[in-house]
């Protein structure tokens, strides 16, 4: 039993070490349909584990297995799908595409009351 637990821990640790994140700015992502196409395009790559799209900021954060793909391949997939994607920076859960509240781009999800 101890061996199994240790192997599981090692596997989880290895997966986290190989995972990487990137944030793209997608200038021509204008609507919800575009956002869905961006997400679908990136998720078609088996190495991609998570995609967070923020339409207001025109940004997308991607978590992927760095052993199986790279940033250039992800950017090329977006380009092939006719999206103008530029690498913004590395992203993590603390910054970038959270989806609620204040964003790094200055947008706020909460509608202001007049």
TrEMBL record:
The UniProt record lists the keyword Signal: yes
A single GO molecular function term of this UniProt record: metal ion binding
Keywords: Metal-binding, Signal
Region forming the signal peptide: 1-19
Limits of the HMA domain: 20-86
Region Disordered: start-end pairs: 94-114
Entry annotated with the keyword Signal: yes
SUPFAM superfamilies the record matches: HMA, heavy metal-associated domain
One Pfam family here: HMA
Coiled-coil ranges from the UniProt annotation: none
Name of this protein: Copper chaperone CopZ
Source species of the chain: Xylanibacter ruminicola
């Amino acid at each position: 039993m101890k061996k199994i637990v240790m192997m599981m821990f090692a596997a989880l640790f290895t997966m986290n070490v190989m995972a990487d994140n990137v944030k793209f700015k997608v200038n021509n992502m204008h609507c919800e349909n575009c956002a869905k196409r961006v997400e679908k395009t990136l998720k078609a790559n088996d190495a991609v584990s998570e995609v967070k799209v923020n339409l207001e900021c025109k940004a997308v954060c991607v978590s992927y297995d760095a052993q199986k793909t790279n940033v250039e391949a992800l950017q090329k997939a977006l380009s092939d799908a006719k999206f103008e994607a530029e690498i913004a920076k590395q992203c993590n859960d603390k910054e970038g595409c959270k989806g609620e509240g204040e964003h790094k781009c200055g947008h706020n999800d909460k509608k202001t009351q007049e």
